[in-house]
Amino acid sequence: TAYVWAVVHDDVLETALGYFIAPLGTVTVGVLVLHEPLRAAQKAALALAGAAVVVLAVSYGRVPWLALVIAASWTTYGYLKKQVPLTPVHSMAAESLVLLVPAAVAIAALAGRADSIPRSADGPHLTLALLTGVATVVPLMMFAYAAPRVPLTIIGPMQYLVPSINFTIGWV
User: Fold this and answer.
1) What is the pLDDT of residues 126-139, one digit of tens each?
2) Do 160 and 45 contact (CB within 8 A), yes or no?
């Protein structure tokens, strides 16, 4: 939700910052909570990433609340995915079930607005909007499959792909 809100309100750079912070949180949970070891090279890489995050956060000029919310939520999600004893399909089904009622309420409340997707989108754009669900579920199922099998100290650094893309989009 924080990510969508930030994008809609032209805070794409702050979303990138949040996703730059999230891997540091993921690795921290892996080390402190799950007692996963770090090699010296990993420690050095994380120290550089941490320094970069500090520079980006300070240069942002204000407290990056959305970035912190995004980072905390993704770190928590990664930890919970590691703990859940469900298959990726069952895990996504459970998440979808939990979100079904709030999503239905939001759709009902916002669908009548003149600028809503159902009212303003033509056929191809409506199709693309509907396909965003698939574009979201596939990577989340892949994450759900990997999370129990891969240490958080490996998953965390792999998460730098998303903020790099977001930062590039926001910058361009």
Assistant:
1) 888 888 888 888 88
2) no
Instruction: Scan for tokens 């490996």, then name that residue.
Output: 154
Burial class (CB in 10 A: 0-12, 13-18, 19+), 160: middle
Contacts 24+ apart (CB under 8 A), 117-125: none
Please, what sign has the CA dihedral across residues 68, 71, 75, 81?
positive
Give the span between the Cα atoms of 39 and 35, in whole angstroms.
13
With 0-12 / 13-18 / 19 or more C-beta atoms within 10 angstroms meaning exposed / middle / buried, residue 61 is: exposed
Model pTM score: 0.72
Rounded to an integer, what distance in angstroms lies between the CA atom of residue 116 and that of residue 118? 6
Q: Which two tokens stand for residue 126?
A: 């409506």
Between CA 49 and CA 163 the distance in angstroms is: 12
Dihedral sign for Cα 33, 35, 36, 37, please.
positive
